[in-house]
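subagent[fold] <- orchestrator: predict structure for attached chain, return tokens only, no commentary.
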Amino acid sequence: MEYVSLGRGGPTVSAVGLGMWQAGGKAWGADVRDADCRKAMERAVDLGINLVDTAEAYGDGHSEQVMSRAIKDLGRDRVFIATKVGGWHLRADDVKKACAGSLKRLGVREIDLYQVHWPDPWSQVPLRETMKALEALHRAGRVRNIGVSNFAVRDLEEARSLLSRTDIRSNQVRYNMLQREVEAEVIPYCKREGIAILAWSPIGKGILTGKYHDGKRPTDRIRSDEDLFKAANLRAVTPLIRALRTIGRAHGKTPGQVALAWLRRHRNVVPIPGAKRPSQSQENADAAGWSLSARELRTLGAVLRRIRIDTF
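subagent[fold] -> orchestrator:
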């Protein structure tokens, strides 16, 4: 496994992480089982993946509970735990209570990376109140690093200005070959400022694996209404899947692994694909330790420029 710093001067984490959203219940399909998700996490860690991401929002804490059993078996020191405080828990007292709840469900004494998750625009909690509460948790040793999720540059700048003893370590955003909105401002800003990017949905919820096509769409609750899986979009990405397969064959890699390598061309980007079973963890881990050539990146760039998808 290859390792990188989580932000400038930050802790060392695996170049590919593991997302545990799928362990939140049956939203990702009837075939999702706690035991399989736990085994997937254990396999990932055995393969060198130490960054494991979850949130209190995933199944109302169920994902954290699934993780806790794996952490107990693996050993706390082998897992870099990233979790998130829900956007409805951003008042100072609520942040502290949410953190205590996550610590209890995870069965640990400290969280390696605690992230602000989807701030609720309706509650209108001042960001100052949230960030000061997070910094208090950091001073108390409950939280080792502070991160955010789905923050635009203007929000990042405000959040950073409100911290006095530490800085924002990472910003977790949606980023994959088909959904690249963050390339306009967020990626350049974070690269310049030494903030890591945790890329969620790095293989487009599975579309970049080539598993799905016009005649085969996912039926689970998370993806059944996902714009990416519209018939027209599935047809539109066919040339990209073909290119991913061609490049993958040259390296003995799958289309999904090539898509993850495309993200890793940015040194500060750590993709966090999910895994419902150990075999998927193996595939994720094998996406690290190699890179695409400049020519292959140009080929993929040319294909991407011709693709038009409808996500509205």
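orchestrator: received. Logging for downstream: The chain has one domain: 3-204+254-290. The beta strands are 3-5, 12-14, 18-19, 51-53, 80-86, 113-117, 146-149, 168-174, 196-200, 269-271.
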